[in-house]
Design a protein that fits this description.
heterodimer, A: Uridine Diphospho-n-acetylenolpyruvylglucosamine Reductase, domain 2, Alpha-Beta Plaits, 8-stranded antiparallel sheet, 19 strands, B: 450 residues, alpha/beta, Rossmann fold, 5-stranded mixed sheet, disordered C terminus, binds flavin-adenine dinucleotide, binds iron/sulfur cluster, Glycolate oxidase iron-sulfur subunit (chain B)
Chain lengths: 501, 450
């Protein structure tokens, strides 16, 4: 479904004249090979992980240092040219959707690990470093980087900061926000600013906190200081099989109520298990309607006791089999199954939408029931993968994009699921962010005054509105029309006489 | 037989556009793609190349830029292993390269280099004929002189690469007989692929393979009339040539009544397991693709076969710390990673070390090091650093090209290591030769020291 280059001739945009004039200066900043103007090259950047939204960037810049980022942004600020930061392009809310008249600022060449500091339990890295590479570098010292999005092998730390990404183990260890101690950022006016540092906890306004989750609208993170977490003495992963989602949900409630704090509690339904199994042969129990992955870590004796307790609780909730894995390889295979689930769904459905919503954990069972009836009514299949421990749902809405109208019906179901989340007192995103995709849904969560306040805050950093415009907060322009249409008809798109690269 | 999960459907029946659509743009394939590791830009990642292929397919254009990025691809297939969505990048790149070869006119210099390479590689006799001059060249001492002066690098990085990976030559072992009888009670009758590069440059690997198979109770059939399997041509988009070679190979083995065809060269094995796809891509009819499929089903890598068969011969100690390198066309191309390690672990006294970043290609990649020498060299160097960090004295892999690539990089970095093929290490253990011949000490068969 996803990799489609199909587009109308109008969309085959040339670099707009105003931007083209900046190219020689961009080349001076980033070097000859650090700037892309060739159309076919630029087009490979047209979307992030959410391919429904596409737009060819006006020009792509690939800086390698903070100074280069600063110079690129200063240049943009000077000329009022918009820019969009991009890390690894795995975002699922079109946060890194390029701007047709702007610069796409890619951090994929800023991937040095600058320092592993076990004494201070932290690491200093460039923004393009992959999340998992921090853990790899810290492992020899007995540490790891705790936030673990399923995309951890590829997604960048800069992207994680921008999205406040979470992962399976955030139940116990918290989201990215809890692990970022310091940032060096380049503001939308081109200033290099330090927020926080190695020492945790600064006084005054929590600008660090505000930057985490700001989706590239307040600046570009050019250096990130993250906390490292001591790796536990023992880690055991349990895989428990249930004949219904309800029973699985009940087990989750029972585990939390018993005062056990697992590092992760993940649930997958039969469809998601089928996909994962096809993808990575992860050896999940056959015939289960729901599979629960529970991980326990800590001091060995404590973990052993908890494993027994959780096994009992699962059995009491109707599990027909619980398997434990403590060897690294077996545990890795279980996690591979879980972490491959999104992309693996490509094996059982030609197209799908990954939704991301949150409900209070106590509403999980009811929510799942409602999703099931939505699916039954619409005839659209929905696979469920979720961080059960903190009520973060990832319904995967499956459809066949070759079937007329199927995409629209899938969109409807997907939207209805978000409505249900709000109805149950939850939120429209747990960890994938707002981006372009959900910007127009923000008014469902926030009243006008709150949105205006957000906007004022954003303008304080970005008075010109050049930092990742049309993301995060709703704008009339964005919420009136579909983004892919907009790219082709904007008045600033150069006509035939503009220089073509 | 492999640890590889199921593919959605076998390749040839699904149109190119469908195969492209399997990509969900998740990016999971980026970290193990060697060119992404080198350059960190989308068009040189699998996800970006698939996008370029979609542009080519849907708009029916093939730009110079796109061809450059397709050529940059090593064809290592790490992206096939890492893709949760089951994208058949191997089929995608094969078709793309075929289009490039038929539709795109390359600059003169490139064309000439390609013509030379492809006039040599598929022909064992021509490769063998090269050995004389190479041997004279090495014996004269010119080799190390030329190497040190860096002269070749300046004239042509491609020729320099060819010189670097050209193996040192020693007197070749006598050619294998057409039939090697089983030692003891016969357990199976198998065919052995000799291979063009393997046969011409590394005949001792074939000898070791035949001996190990025989010691494990196999009667080994080695048809003299076999040629090149065509994998190199197929992986480079020269489909017509690949199909012709494949047909000849099918004819040769069809009549030999062998249960399996054992292959000890990763690139050949991965090509032969897809003979049907190659013939379909070349437009051969149903009858041929069916014959190809039947043959492909018999193809196994040596290590895969030995693990399946189970050990019978006694293993003697080889007390040595050894690093195993996954040849891409074995691990990614055929999903064989567990079996060679299992075989090595069963050798008493042998200590097995893992290379860091084991999924990332060493840069050898068939003929890639001839066409993109700088990239190949950089990848070789990074692999060499990894290999040196293991402290292993011997580097083993299922593909001689890889071993040579890494070993020559290690030599340049001042940490030389001995290299050998899995078959030779097993042979040494089964025959009780100990580690010396493998380390290039005390003559005999075995590895070369670079
Ligand atoms: C298969 C799959 C599974 C996923 N699983 C999870 C999961 O479990 N949990 C989770 O939270 N997310 C998950 N995601 C979403 C995604 O991986 C995360 O949002 C990730 O943090 C994005 O990182 P990135 O480097 O790809 O950023 P991009 O997609 O390139 O960018 C994301 C946003 O960050 C901004 N940005 C990027 N770099 C910087 C910078 N240096 N400074 C300022 N802004 C910047 C961009 O402008 C954009 O708004 C998943 C995605 C996929 C495809
Ligand atoms: S085959 Fe290797 S080099 Fe080519 S795209 Fe895949 S991983 Fe990259
Ligand atoms: S891992 Fe597979 S689906 Fe994901 S981007 Fe790469 S090829 Fe596409």
């Amino acid at each position: 479904m996803a990799t489609t280059a199909r587009r109308t001739p109008d969309d085959l945009v040339r670099t707009p004249a105003a931007l083209a004039a900046l190219v020689p200066r961009l080349r001076r900043i980033c070097g000859e090979d650090g700037v892309l103007t060739d159309l076919s090259q630029r087009r490979t950047y047209e979307s992030d992980g959410l391919t429904r939204h596409r737009s060819t960037p006006g020009v792509v810049a690939m800086p390698t240092t903070t100074a280069q980022v600063r110079d690129v942004i200063s240049l943009c600020a000077e000329h009022g040219v918009p820019y969009v930061p991009r890390g690894a392009g795995t975002g699922l809310s079109a946060g890194a959707l390029p701007h047709a008249e702007g610069v796409l600022l890619v951090t994929s060449r800023m991937r040095r690990i600058l320092e592993i500091d076990p004494e201070n339990e932290c690491a200093v890295v460039e923004p393009g470093v992959a999340n998992l590479d921090i853990t790899r570098a810290a492992e020899p010292y007995g540490y790891h980087y705790a936030p673990d999005p399923s995309s951890q092998q590829v997604c960048s730390v800069g992207g994680n900061v921008a999205e406040n990404s979470g992962g399976a183990h955030c139940l116990k260890y918290g989201f990215t926000a809890g692990h970022v101690r310091g940032l060096e950022i380049v503001t939308p006016s081109g200033e290099v600013v330090e927020l926080g540092g190695k020492a945790p906890g600064a006084h005054g306004y929590d600008l660090l906190g505000a930057f985490v989750g700001s989706e590239g609208t307040l600046g570009v993170a050019t250096r990130v200081t993250v906390s490292l977490t001591r790796s536990p003495q023992r880690t055991v992963t349990l895989l428990s099989a249930f004949t219904s989602l309800d029973a699985g949900g009940e087990a989750v409630g029972a585990i939390i109520a018993a005062g056990v704090l697992p590092s992760a509690v993940e649930m997958m339904d039969a469809l998601a298990v089928e996909a994962a199994e096809a993808a990575v042969a992860c050896d999940y129990p056959a015939g289960a309607e729901a599979v629960l992955v529970v991980e326990l870590d800590g001091p060995a004796a404590e973990v052993d006791a908890q494993v027994r307790r959780v096994t009992e609780l699962c059995a009491a909730s109707g599990s027909f089999g619980t398997r434990t894995a403590s060897g690294a390889e077996e545990r890795a295979l279980i996690w591979k199954g879980r972490k491959s689930a999104f992309a693996a769904v490509g094996r059982i459905s030609p197209a799908y939408i990954v939704q991301d919503g949150v409900v209070p954990r106590t509403a999980l069972a009811e929510m799942l029931g409602r999703i099931a009836s939505l699916s039954a009514e619409s005839g659209i299949r929905v696979a469920n993968v979720f961080h059960a421990g903190d009520g973060n749902l990832h319904p995967l809405v499956l459809f066949d994009d070759a079937e007329p109208g199927a995409a629209e019906r899938a969109e409807e179901v997907s939207g209805a699921i978000l409505d249900l989340c709000i109805e149950h007192g939850g939120s429209i995103t747990g960890e994938h962010g707002v981006g372009v995709d959900k910007a127009c849904k923000m008014p469902r969560m926030y009243d006008d005054t709150s949105l205006e306040t957000f906007d004022l805050f954003r303008r304080a950093f970005d008075p010109e509105g050049i930092a990742n415009p049309d993301k995060l907060l709703p704008t009339p322009r964005l919420c009136g029309e579909r983004p892919e249409v907009r790219t082709g008809v904007h008045p600033l798109v150069a006509s035939g006489d503009a220089e073509q690269f | 037989m492999t640890d590889r999960p199921t593919d959605p459907e076998p390749g040839p029946e699904r149109p190119f556009g469908d195969l492209l659509d399997d990509c969900v743009h998740c990016g999971f394939c980026l970290p193990t793609c060697p060119t992404n590791v080198l350059w960190g830009q989308e068009m040189d990642s699998p996800r970006g190349r698939i996008h370029l292929m979609a542009q080519m397919h849907e708009e029916d254009v093939l730009t110079e830029t796109a061809v450059g990025h397709f050529d940059n691809c090593l064809g290592c297939l790490a992206c096939v292993s890492s893709c949760p969505s089951g994208v058949a990048y191997d089929a995608l790149i094969e078709h793309t390269r075929h289009r490039v070869e038929t539709e795109h006119r390359r600059p003169l210099g490139e064309r000439a280099l390609r013509a030379t390479v492809f006039s040599l590689f598929p022909y064992r006799s021509r490769l063998r004929a090269l050995r004389g001059p190479l041997r004279a060249y090495q014996a004269s001492g010119a080799s190390s002189l030329v190497r040190r002066s860096g002269l070749l690098e300046r004239i042509s990085p491609a020729l320099a690469a060819m010189e670097r990976v050209a193996p040192r030559l020693s007197a070749p072992p006598p050619p294998l007989p057409e039939l090697v009888p089983a030692v003891g009670e016969r357990r199976a009758r198998v065919g052995l692929l000799v291979g063009c590069v393997q046969g011409a440059f590394f005949p001792e690997v074939n000898t070791a393979t035949a001996r190990v198979l025989a010691l494990e109770g196999c009667e080994v059939v080695v048809p003299r009339s076999q040629g090149c399997c065509g994998a190199l041509s197929g992986h480079s988009g020269r489909i017509a040539e690949a199909a012709d070679l494949a047909k000849r190979m099918i004819e040769v083995f069809e009549t030999r009544r062998v249960e399996r065809i054992v292959v000890n060269s990763a690139g050949c094995g991965s090509g032969m397991k897809h003979f049907d796809r190659t013939l379909a891509e070349a437009g051969a009819g149903r009858a041929w693709t069916n014959r190809a499929r039947a043959l492909s089903a018999k193809v196994v890598d040596l290590t895969e076969y030995l693990v399946d068969l189970g050990p019978r011969a006694a293993r003697h100690p080889v007390p040595l710390r050894v690093a195993y390198h996954d040849a891409c066309h074995l691990s990614h191309g055929q999903g064989v990673t567990r079996q060679p390690r299992e075989l090595l672990r069963r050798i008493p006294g042998l200590e097995l070390a893992e290379l860091p970043d084991r999924e990332v290609c060493c840069g050898s990649a068939g003929v890639y090091n001839l066409f993109r020498p700088e990239a190949a060299e950089e990848l070789g160097e990074s692999k060499a650093r990894g290999a040196a960090s293991t402290g292993a004295r011997l580097l083993v892999s299922g593909n001689p090209g890889c071993s040579l690539q890494i070993a020559s990089a290690m030599e340049r970095a001042g940490s030389p290591v001995a290299v050998t093929h899995t078959a030779q290490l097993l042979d040494a253990s089964l025959r009780g030769l100990g580690p010396d011949p493998l380390l290039g000490r005390g003559g005999g068969s075995g590895a070369r020291r670079l």
